[in-house]
Specification:
single chain; about 425 residues; alpha/beta; TIM Barrel; eight-stranded parallel beta barrel
């Protein structure tokens, strides 16, 4: 006599749900899954609307496009004129080339200008309506007591992506608390700050002041980006004063710790003309391009748990202990072709979360691990490790990755096979 397996409808529903999840999701470590913006300085348009680059347009425009940066601060709009920062007819063509290359263009307004909040907001509206810029940078933000009013006004102007320079944090220049409604909060690398006149270049490059700021942003504004940068011009000038090997070592250290501490770096490709930082002249351009491809948060993800530091608005009392639980990713940038291998977390997801729930109903299930291999011009070979923070997330663009579709189809077929099976 043959025994029939009593099949419960919830098992079929569960397996089909698994297939649907796999077909409409992909591991967040795979390239293209909600990538973090890759910021860079490429300051080429001055307040007058004319060219202000450190290299001629024929050199600097292709260099910015080839860098791999996706968000580039290209212009400044200082002074009282509402038209400040809007490119003239000649230089508008250069911004058009950058936009056609898919780069999001940023413009800076300056809190230190002797303008009222309403005047800065009106300037922001003029820049927004010009159609040239995708995001806005508010310099010296915390030196203004009306900064929250300015942020609110800029948001009403239509600016969704607002970055502020929060470097005055903890100094006598800070006259207001950190404003809300900000897309990205930027802080200087304290190591090269003018407040740190004798930096120890042989020691840690991310200092307690940096960690305290990052922890504060992560805990207070968890949906905003924490950004680290070199202050222009004092810190970029200090960087340029070092030998090339020291510059590369510092840039490498700053870039490789992004995932560990949860920040996004602004790469100093080109700052303002007339003494600005020129990565081509300094010999760091190709090195920074390699860093952008190798060490950006969009490539390397981390399950770091940065310890909580006590933080005060003026940072006069600071205590911080480094409780990171991550594996540091070490690499030496190069300009040759390598391959990045990203391993899907499908197998781990099934074995850790699905099998325990279904062990009473069947004995085995096929788990398929898909290896996605992508080639880039300059990157290191790395194995993405599965962590609790790299769960399955919906795709950010229309369409589904082929490996997820195949996994979904396979699981769906297994569900049908088990449903039809009779003994």
């Amino acid at each position: 006599m043959t025994n029939r397996v009593k099949w419960k409808p919830w098992i079929t529903c569960t397996l089909f749900a698994i297939g649907l999840i796999l077909a409409t999701s992909k591991p967040s470590a795979v390239e293209g899954a909600s990538p973090t913006p890759i910021f860079a300085y490429g300051m080429i348009i001055g307040s007058s609307g004319g060219w202000d680059g450190v290299e001629p347009p024929s050199v600097e425009i292709p260099a910015i496009i080839s860098s791999g940066a996706t968000y580039v601060r290209v212009a400044g709009a200082s002074g009282p004129a509402l038209s400040a920062g809007i490119p003239d007819s000649t230089d508008a063509a250069y911004l058009s080339r950058l936009r056609q290359a898919g780069i999001n263009l940023g413009v800076a307004i300056f809190g230190q200008d002797a303008l009222t909040a309403d005047q800065l907001i009106q300037k922001g509206l003029t820049l927004k309506r010009s159609g040239w810029y995708d995001w806005i940078f508010v310099d010296d933000a915390l030196s203004r007591s009306d900064i929250q009013q300015i942020i609110d006004g800029l948001r009403n102007d239509g600016w969704d992506e607002i970055m502020i320079n929060a470097s005055p944090t903890g100094t006598s220049k800070q006259v207001s608390p950190m404003p809300g409604g900000v897309w990205a909060y930027a802080f200087h690398f304290y190591l090269l700050s003018k407040d740190n006149p004798n930096p120890d270049l042989s020691g840690p490059t991310i200092l307690p002041q940096d960690i305290a700021f990052l922890n504060y942003i992560h805990s207070t504004f968890p949906t905003s980006l924490a950004v680290m940068k070199l202050e222009v011009p004092p810190e970029t000038a200090r960087l340029a004063s070092y030998p090339l090997s020291t510059q590369e070592s510092l840039l490498n250290s700053f870039a490789s710790q992004q995932a560990t501490y949860g920040y996004t770096m602004i790469y100093p490709l080109f700052t303002d003309g007339g003494g600005g930082y020129d990565s081509i002249a300094e010999g760091t351009y190709q090195y920074q391009v390699a860093l952008i491809e190798n060490a950006s948060p969009a490539t390397f993800e981390s399950s770091s748990t940065v310890s909580t530091a006590s933080y005060s608005s003026n940072m006069s009392s600071l205590s911080s202990s480094n409780g990171n639980t991550v594996t540091t990713l070490e690499f030496t940038p190069s300009v040759s072709s390598h391959t990045t291998r990203v391993v899907s977390s499908t197998s781990t997801f099934i074995s850790n979360r699905i099998l325990p729930a279904l062990t009473s109903s069947y004995t085995t299930i096929m788990a398929v691990t898909v290896e996605l291999t992508t080639s880039t011009t300059t990157t290191v070979t790395a194995l993405a490790s599965t962590s609790t923070s790299s769960g399955l997330t919906p795709p950010t663009i229309a369409g589904f990755p082929w490996e997820s579709i195949m996994a979904g189809v396979i699981v769906g077929m297994i569900a049908l096979a088990i449903a039809r099976r009779r003994k």
